[in-house]
Design a protein that fits this description.
With about 425 residues, the chain is an alpha/beta fold. About 35% of the residues lie in helices and about 20% in strands. The structure holds flavin-adenine dinucleotide.
Length: about 425
């Protein structure tokens, strides 16, 4: 029997594949719901996402989703959302998306354009554990680090490119450099394989873990694991009211929570798990009447490079990306405050954050008057950072697998929902072959 702790997207997907393969399992979830960081809320005419806003799907992820969610409930991002905007010199400017437009657009300086063209032929090799900023400065230059890499890393990881490791965050780029001698060449050669689309669902991202959970039989809610002990080749799990015994154990909970459960078994590892950075972050939803601004929200959203000194890390223009997020005559903006590079902003009270953000949005989008509505959701520990602190954890994770203890969650093998689905399927295959 396999025990799974945690019913976020990782835990429920793993349970689904194990059930499909006929492998006995028991999924234990502390709360009364599935989804973990995935949290959607319908509030009257509005649909708010507090965690992930979209799933970036390749063909096989979409196929997986279609098993649970009917076609007419899958909402694909509007065409306009292909455009990304970066704040520079007082306003949002469209980031050139393709190599030719990178060169012919005025977003970057001539020196940087030259660096982009010459990247195709640049011979350069990195050092082990190179950071994202070091890699991009080596392949391009500092302007690319500040105005392309920095805002994107904030947008995806709420992270700092000076700390995140290339190999752990964007291994594909390292692969392109090794295989083609250039990352731009790599992108061009792999263009068709890279085709992906962003989707959500009629009732929000939360629909996915909920629909997966409907297809699994062995899930116990309100069952928080309090301790793990291994004796006689079995894992002994204690919850408030019950005890469980498993031959194999899969951990699908945040690293700092696993640290508490593993303290008595290996305090050194528990200490390493606690060192993993999970910056605090707020998702703030702001609703405006269309008549309050002339700004054209023609894109996915606006990202703020740290260098520009803004209060927020950036915003998703949610009502431009997906239909049915708010009434037709209104605009929904989802802004992010906090993360590794904006740690100070998130120390303020909810009201202070809302006030500062409103002031910033009013200035950028030339908004007249107050927002129609504003809602703030706080994550004390948002996204695990794949920085140097991940290295000792990863080597221990491999060791644990030999003892039948597996990690299947976002601090190993990728943070995105798509990564989580892939990793859960891979692990289910491994465990099915072994049992
Ligand atoms: C603000 C934000 C925005 C994001 N945006 C995106 C996005 O747009 N697209 C994208 O792909 N990804 C995004 N992500 C990342 C993605 O949402 C997460 O990486 C992913 O949902 C993590 O899923 P998980 O199942 O691995 O873990 P979790 O979601 O952490 O699930 C863990 C589960 O374990 C349970 N648990 C904890 N302790 C115990 C215990 N002791 N016993 C039993 N159960 C326990 C919890 O209640 C929870 O249900 C975002 C994340 C955040 C925070």
């Amino acid at each position: 029997m396999i025990g799974i702790i945690g019913a976020g997207i990782s835990g429920v997907t793993l349970a689904y594949f194990l059930e499909k393969a006929g492998v006995p399992y028991q999924l234990l979830e502390a709360s009364d719901r599935v989804g973990g960081y995935i949290r959607s809320k319908r509030l009257g005419k509005y649909l708010f996402e507090f965690g992930p806003n979209s799933v970036l799907c390749d063909a096989s992820t979409l196929q997986f989703i279609q098993q649970f969610i009917p076609e007419n409930e899958i909402i694909t991002a509007n065409e306009v959302s292909k455009a990304r905007y970066i704040f520079r010199n007082g306003k949002y400017r469209k980031l050139p998306a393709s190599p030719p437009s990178l060169v012919f657009n005025s977003f970057f300086s001539w020196q940087t354009k030259f660096q982009i063209i010459s990247e195709f032929y640049r011979k350069s090799t990195g050092t082990p554990n190179e950071t994202l900023a070091q890699f991009f400065a080596r392949r391009f230059n500092q302007e690319i680090v500040d105005y392309a890499l920095n805002p994107f890393v904030t947008g995806i990881y709420a992270g700092n490119p000076d700390e995140l490791l290339l190999e752990k965050t964007f291994p594909k780029l390292l692969g392109f450099e090794q295989e083609y001698g250039s990352i731009l060449k790599g992108f061009i050669k792999n263009k068709s394989a890279e085709r992906k689309q962003s989707v959500t669902f009629r009732n929000g991202i939360q629909e996915l873990p909920q629909k997966i959970a409907e297809k699994i039989s062995h899930i116990r809610y309100n069952t928080k694991v309090r301790s793990i002990r291994k004796a006689n080749q079995k894992f002994h799990i204690q919850t408030k009211n019950d005890a469980f015994e498993f031959d194999k154990l899969v951990v699908a909970i945040p690293a700092f929570q696993f640290a508490d459960l593993y303290e008595n078994t290996d305090s050194n590892f528990a200490q390493n798990l606690r060192k993993l950075n999970y910056p605090a972050m707020c998702a703030v939803h702001t609703v405006l009447k269309k008549s309050q601004t002339k700004f054209q929200f023609n894109g996915f959203g606006g990202l703020n490079p740290k260098k520009e000194g803004l209060f927020s890390a950036g915003s998703i223009w949610s009502s431009s990306v997906f239909q049915e997020r708010c009434p037709e005559d209104e605009i929904l903006i989802t802004s992010f405050v906090g993360g590794m590079q904006y740690a100070e902003s998130v120390k303020l009270s909810d009201n202070e954050i809302k006030a500062k953000l409103t002031e910033e949005l009013q200035e950028i989008y030339k908004i007249e008057g107050k927002p129609v509505l504003q809602r703030l959701f706080r994550w004390q520990n948002a996204i695990p950072q794949y920085d140097k602190n991940i290295l000792p954890i990863e080597s221990k994770v491999k060791e644990l697998e030999r003892e039948n203890l597996w990690i299947c969650t976002n601090w190993v093998g990728g943070i995105s929902i798509t990564d989580r689905i892939y990793r859960a399927e891979e692990l289910a295959q491994k465990l099915s072959n072994k049992s």
